[in-house]
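Q: Start with the shorter request: fold the first protein.
A: Done. Sequence, then structure:
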Amino acid sequence: MQVDTTGTDQSIRGDAPSRSSHVALAQMLTASFRAHGHTGNVLTHIAQGSWTAIEACMARLLDPSWDARQCSRLDSEILELMCDQSGIAGKTVRAELLRIVASAFGDETAEAIMVEMETRRAAKPPMTAFTRKRKW
């Protein structure tokens, strides 16, 4: 797969994610999540219907230079879904993230990205009591 994110074609298959490939990965994940009935509904709700905001959030979360201490409410909600293993949407988001990253970069990179997401989840500011109660 060829992705043009910086004016020159770069392959995202087989290499560790780069600063440009995280945008292509975000696009693939967003499309996949939007196509899934329940996950699409959950993300539509938490992003107030803005799929552009969801895609931008996914790109931020996958950006190696992103600082979790600067996360927005949407960043926090989606990061929770990526790391959650108890709710339906959380399980679906996590599995789809692993599947898409593994198909583009391999299983080892997919696992490394999940470890990074868990680390970022721990570093982000705490969620509100209202948000913490939700189990999608």
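Q: Next, the second protein, separately.
A: Sequence, then structure:
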Amino acid sequence: MTTTITPPTADPNETLLTLLAEHADALAAGNTSTLLEVATLTLSERALFGIAEALHRALPGVEPNPEFLAKLRRDLLEALRAEKRGLPVLAWLSRWRNLPTGYRIAAGVGGLTIAAGLTLLGVRRVIDAAGKIAPSSEGDPALALNPANG
């Protein structure tokens, strides 16, 4: 299989990204890439290709779960239909609806806990601020909080 090299663009970063993508495609296809022999690269750029080859050797190939592929296909088609109808895609809402019930309950309880904690902090600040502004209880011993002062 022959490897094609994309003509260089004006942006050197774009050229490097294109070369890395072509190199990754060649590695995934199982053939050794001749890009390194043909392309003019600096030492640090060549190191990137070396890292890509080391990762390819070290990481085993995986096949996605068929259930995941089916769900991904449904989600993408649903998003495409919504986009064609001009509706905003609310991916988080779709994901929320597809979560197992236990996760949704746990997330709801967690959200309520956070809301209650923030409410208590806010109420405490208001009470503390009101206590500093309120008139002193020194004038009326019946209003004193500390009986030793009364």
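Q: Describe the second briefly.
A: The longest helix spans residues 101-133. The mean pLDDT is 77.
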